Amino acid sequence: MIAADSLSKQILIGECKWRNSFNETEAVERLRGRAGLIRGYLPETARFVLFSKNEVGESIRNRYCEDERMSFVSVDDMYAG
After folding, report:
1. Maximum Cα–Cα distance for the chain, whole Å?
2. Which of 11, 15, 43, 47 is the most buried (most CB within 10 A)?
3. With bands split at pLDDT 50, 70 and 90, how would you rate the model's confidence at 71?
């Protein structure tokens, strides 16, 4: 999934993982690597969202807790009221 603002050159790149388990580190690195594939947008300013069926593990959250460009959204997060 890509959302792009052609005026400000801001881009958001997301991916959905609808599995009970997957290699979270690999998924994040692959997602972040895609920023350089979008012409006309700077990879350094891209934002990333990994949507998943279940909450990602604590270790991956801790690894990216200081990175404001990386977000994790689980189904529970989407439907929390």
Report:
1. 38
2. 11
3. very high
Cα(25)–Cα(8) distance, rounded to whole angstroms? 30
Contacts within 8 Å (CB) and 24+ apart, 61-65 = 63/25, 64/28
Are the beta carbons of 32 and 48 closer than 8 angstroms? Answer: yes
Residue 58's pLDDT is 97
Neighbouring residues of 65: CB distance < 8 A, sequence distance ≥ 6: none
List the chain domain ranges: 2-79
The pLDDT of residue 81 is above 80: no
